[in-house]
Amino acid sequence: MKCPFCGHLDDRVVDSRESREGDAIRRRRECARCERRFTSYERIDEIPYMVVKKDGTRERFDRQKLIAGMLKACEKRPVSVAVLESVANRVEAALHERPEKELSAEAVGALVMDELKTLDKVAYVRFASVYRDFRDIGEFMEELKGLLDGQEDKEGNVRAAPRSSGPGE
Ligand SMILES: [Zn+2]
User: Fold this and answer.
1) Of the candidates 41, 144, 76, 60, which has an alpha carbon nearest to the alpha carbon of residue 108?
2) Residue 39 C-alpha to ligand 1 middle, in angstroms?
3) Within a domain: 21
4) Domain housing 40
5) Neighbours of 11 (CB within 10 A)
6) Which of 11, 105, 128, 132 is 20 to 30 A from 121 in CA distance terms?
7) Which pTM does this prediction carry?
8) How far is ligand 1, taken at its centre, from the CA of residue 38, in Å?
9) How far is the CA of 90 from the centre of ligand 1 (A)?
10) 34 and 94, same structural domain?
11) Which residues, by Cβ under 5 Å, contact ligand 1, an ion?
12) Over the stretch 94-132, which tens digit does the pLDDT of each residue have?
């Protein structure tokens, strides 16, 4: 997004509580050069975020579907919808950062799993069991074991799972 003050093309989104006004998304941004803040409005139907599935086909990124999936994983868990909304915002932001405006379904799943892992272990395992393509039950058990081992460590010292390289890395 072009900075209205200095014309620089690089910025970051500073307000994660992006508000929806009608069918537009309002984002507060900060210019990477002059650091002044401005607001952008993007029409949702003009942002064709795409998710690339395993077989190479693409489908539109469906925010509601993503939130519904997370809600299911967080059923009866102490995670608020507002928190899940902000996770969805960050997934959208990751898509937005991609020049091609698309991510693999796997990468989207990995982003969400990273977030859920820090939010709620049970929700993470539920989500992972659906989204992650564990080759066999042994692989899944290894992941669970890793999580449980991590929990025995001090808070914040949870064993990090191998991260898939996300956008901008
Ligand atoms: Zn600027």
Assistant:
1) 60
2) 12
3) yes
4) 1-46
5) 21
6) 105
7) 0.56
8) 9
9) 23
10) no
11) 3, 5-6, 8, 31, 33-34
12) 887 787 888 888 888 889 989 998 999 889 888 888 776
